[in-house]
Amino acid sequence: MKNKKVLAVLGLAVVVAAGGTLAYFNQTHVAENQFDTGNYDTKLVETFNPKDGDDWKPGAEVNKDVEVENTGDVPVVVRAKLDETWSRDGEAVKTITSENDKSAIVVPWQADATDGLVEEDNTVVEKAIGTQWVQGTDGWFYYIDMVAPGTTTEKFLDSVTLKSDVDMGKRDRTYTVTCSKIANPFDLETAGYAYLIQEDGSVDLEGLSDALGLVKGDELKVDYEDKVVEGLEGYSDADYTLTITAEVVQATDEAVDEAFGTEVPYLDLNWELEQEALN
C-alpha cells in the first residue's frame, strides 16, 4: 500500500479593536488533500495518478472525514468551500471552485466520457457532503447550527468517489502484423488492411490470412497497442488536488458581517447571533 500523505494548512486571524480590546476572533482552516492512486487496494488515498486508467480504480470510494471542532469558549458559526484542480506534468488541466462554479463542484457530469476533453465537464469526483451543510448562492457551504464550545460540527465531507465512467482519454489503437512470409512486421492500417478491423477493435485474422495469401503452416500474429491521443488525455495520468477551506467566526452580527460579508445567504440556518461582539 502506498504511503498516505496529507497536507493541511491552518490559519488564525485575530481582530483587535482600538485600545487593545478583543472585538472577535476569526479563523480560517485550509486542508489541501492530494489523492494518490497506484494500488487498487488503497482505501484512503491522497494523491492519485490514474495512469491510462490502470493505476486508479474508477468507482472506488475513498474515505475522507472533515469536520470542525470548537475548542474555544464562545459559540461560533462555520462555512466551508471546495476547490479542486486536475494537473498534468505540473500544468493545470482543469480547476473547479465552490465560489465560481457552485453546483458544478458537487454535481458530477461529463459532456462526453470518451472524447478525451475535460473543459466542458463538471466535477468527475462525487463528494459526500454532510446533510447539515447547505450551499448558499455565494457557493459556500454553511453549517446550519451554531457550534457551542466543546462541540463539533457534523462531517462536512465524508468521502470522495471518482466516477466509474470517468474519461480516461481518447485512445488510438495500432496493429502490428508479424507474418512468416514477410521479413519485417508491418502496420495493418498503413499496409491497406484497415477494412479487416472489426467493430470491437479486433482483427479478422481469417480474412487477413486470405489477403496475405497464407497457406497451412504459415504463421500470423497481430499485436495490439493502445495509446492515449496527445491533447485528448482526459483525466488519465493526472494529479487531483482537493482543497477544503473552512471559515470559523464568533457568533455575532458584527463578526459575521466583517468576516463573511453582509450578503450572507442565511437559508435555513439556525443561527441566533448576538448583536455585538463580546468585549
Automatic annotation (TrEMBL):
Signal peptide: 1-23
This protein's UniProt keywords: Signal
Listed Pfam families: Peptidase_M73
Keyword Membrane: no
Domain of life: Bacteria
Protein name, UniProt field: BsaA family SipW-dependent biofilm matrix protein
Species the sequence originates in: Candidatus Blautia merdavium
